[in-house]
Amino acid sequence: MTHAVDSLERVTADVVVCRRCPRLVEWRERVAREKVARFRDEEYWGRPVPGFGDPAARILIVGLAPAAHGGNRTGRVFTGDASGDFLFAAMHEVGLANQPTSVRAGDGLALVDCYIAAAVRCAPPGNKPLPSERDNCAPYLQRELALLAGLRAVVALGAYGWASALRALAAVSGVELRPRPKFAHGAEVGFGRYDLIGTYHPSQQNTFTGVLTPPMLIDVLARAKELATTPR
């Protein structure tokens, strides 16, 4: 869906009512009904999760999708799960967030010069969206990219975030890179006025095994700040 006069608020409004992917609708709502024992007394969000952050952001962070018992529960991406704990601590360290933790929407977290969005806005079964689901969600990220007028740097979390960011940047910038740049931790590529930088995803699979450490993520975020603030 596109609008003659678009805004981040319109994107949010469109995201939260989206029902384009029947498999994801069924899954996110079932998870919200059945819950897990540790959150059995909480009311789950159970809907698509919009992006959030500073509308004047020069940095955009792109993840994969909300966690079933994280963003799908709290209604805010990376909020209330271990990946978010790891990410927000690093963001706070480099001055992109006002506090190092976030457990629920409305807990005082504010992003500084940064916006966060997921490539897919609904929690997917097994954390694996189908290509059709990815494509259904792609316009939301493209609209956010176009609306963040001050944006200069995009941080992709993991290979999925990298591939999604590449497609969105190509659509918005009109720059199509061939061959397509490969994901790697610390990889960088330019798209006109944008720079894309990759990092391993802060999933427990990576953080518990030392594939991604706090200093590694802090270094990438600090590099994104450098790219975002360097005059062109």
Key features?
alpha/beta, globular, 232 residues, single chain, Uracil-DNA Glycosylase, subunit E, six-stranded mixed β-sheet, 8 helices, 6 strands
Break the fold down into its secondary structure elements and pairings.
Elements: H1 8-16, H2 22-34, E1 52-53, E2 59-63, H3 71-74, H4 82-93, E3 114-118, H5 131-147, E4 153-157, H6 158-173, E5 188-191, E6 194-199, H7 204-207, H8 214-229
Parallel strand pairs: 2-3, 2-4, 4-6
Antiparallel strand pairs: 1-3, 5-6
Helix pairs in contact: 4-8, 5-6
State the gist of this model.
With 232 residues, the chain is α/β, with parallel strands linked by helices.
Structure in words:
This protein has 232 residues and is an alpha/beta fold. It has one domain (8-229): Uracil-DNA glycosylase-like domain (Uracil-DNA Glycosylase, subunit E). The protein contains eight helices and six strands; from the N terminus they run H-H-E-E-H-H-E-H-E-H-E-E-H-H. A hairpin with a 2-residue loop joins strand 5 and strand 6 (194-199). Helix 4 (82-93) packs across helix 8 (214-229) and helix 5 packs across helix 6 (158-173). The model has no long low-confidence stretch (mean pLDDT 96).
